[in-house]
Amino acid sequence: MSVAFRRESDEEHLEPRPDLPIPPGPNLVTARGLALIAGHATLWEDRLETALATKADEAAVKEVRRNLRYWHARRATAQVAPIPDGAVVAFGTRVTHARDGSPDQTIDLVGEDEADPTEGRIAFTSPLARALMGLSVDDVAPFKAGGKTVDIEIVAIEAIPD
């Protein structure tokens, strides 16, 4: 039979999924963040062992390897930042701030992989973190949020406790 009449499988035309995107810039982490990254890497290593032992389908193994590459890259490039002194807002600080009369809010400035806004941890690369960096207690800075500019006052700064 001619190759022209042969039905090729749909999988032959699938593009491979690209690796998970690595955030640009330095991979600054806190000690907690480094432990989280190591935990994720171990988790995906275990999942790969399980997938290979159970002879999981090729797509599942590829997905596990994709995630594992991401966490290995993050662990390899992690730079534990020195503990800040708390005099100014910096990576690794816990910052309490007020916005235009709203109740005070406390956030921790952490690395990309440790960030969890619902837990009050934001990435040091976020717009809010960048607006606060370098400020001291009682400093007020404008910040554009939701299409309007609000004033943010720094109420307290401390190093994130272990």
TrEMBL record:
Q: Which SUPFAM superfamilies does the record cross-reference, listed alphabetically?
A: FKBP-like
Q: Which residues cross the membrane?
A: none
**Region of interest: Disordered:** 1-26
What Pfam families does this protein's entry cite? GreA_GreB
Task: Spell out the molecular function terms from Gene Ontology.
Answer: DNA binding; RNA polymerase binding
**A GO term (biological process) for this protein?**
regulation of DNA-templated transcription elongation
Locations of Basic and acidic residues compositional bias? 1-18
On the tree of life, the source organism's domain of life is Bacteria
This chain's protein is named Transcription elongation GreA/GreB family factor
Origin organism of this chain?
A: Sphingomonas prati
